[in-house]
Amino acid sequence: MLIRFTGVVLGAVLGTTALAAPAVADPALAASVDVVTAEQASKKIMIFDPAVASWNGSGATKWAWSPTSANGFSAQADGASAEASTSAAGWSNPSDMRLRSNSHHGGQVLVTAASGGFLGVASFPAGKRKWSVAVPGADNPHAAELLPNGNVAAAASHGGWIRLYAASQGPNATKHAQYDLPGGHGVLWDPQGSVLWAIGDNHLVALKVGGTAANPTLSEARKVALPSKGGHDLQPVYGNKDRLWITTSSQVYQFSKSTGAFSTDYAHAASANRTSVKSIGNHPQTGQLIEAKPKAGCRTTWCTDTIDFFGADAKRTRTGAEFYKARFWYAAYQ
């Protein structure tokens, strides 16, 4: 289902902001789905209208959210600052975000992770808590995914694990299955094969989900060596159910599930096949690519203030932003 605001002001929502879109738009991106970002300077998940040429003003911002006590998330206990006293435990350096439609959690939801240790599900657009857990920040969660049965998968790079939480059992559920994967960076549910794909430093794996919703299990069904080191992002190739997007420290690939081959023969590869790409995806209708790649001058070595589009090439910059990932805001698994 394609999700897009129409310029109507949604009004104030606890823990979120929603703003009307301006009339002025960039024709090159006028047909685009909105773009969701993990913006680490403001510690928010932010949705932008890619048809607006400048992301500096409020006019391009469609939605902004963080997990706070006001929208049902438990506040941090350290009391180090006013912000810490209202933000959920583990909410620092947001690292992943995706839209899913899930009947168990009441419809459309944001699934998100933060490197500080936060994993959570919130209703969209209300932003209310559906489920969350805080793991040690030292584990460095990098990705989260929602399975059709309401359970949540997650990847942690420093923890070296892929987990499947029994989030279907309630907002405070912590029971989980674990599969050890060094450098766990990405997870993606594949409804075609009924497997959970996961990417780590050196391998792409397909995990079979067993057990029950209340007591899930994970077992390795397939393991493929990556063609280069430093596996990072893992996304569907919309329009081709056989392929997955894969990024590593040095390249951007498409992986064929049927042949096991990694390729760089996709459209716009001459521009998009770059080093250190943190996130990759394609528009579900036009095929336009979207990437986030670290930029010199950003506060950290992994952030950028600019999101790149290839195929109807464009850039969108927000001065002072620290984007880690950017995706088209689209709910389909594939």
UniProtKB/TrEMBL annotation:
Keywords: Signal. Residues 1-20 form the signal peptide. The keyword Signal applies. InterPro entries: DUF6528. It comes from the Bacteria. This is PQQ-like domain-containing protein. It comes from Allokutzneria albata (Kibdelosporangium albatum). The lineage of its organism: Bacteria, Bacillati, Actinomycetota, Actinomycetes, Pseudonocardiales.
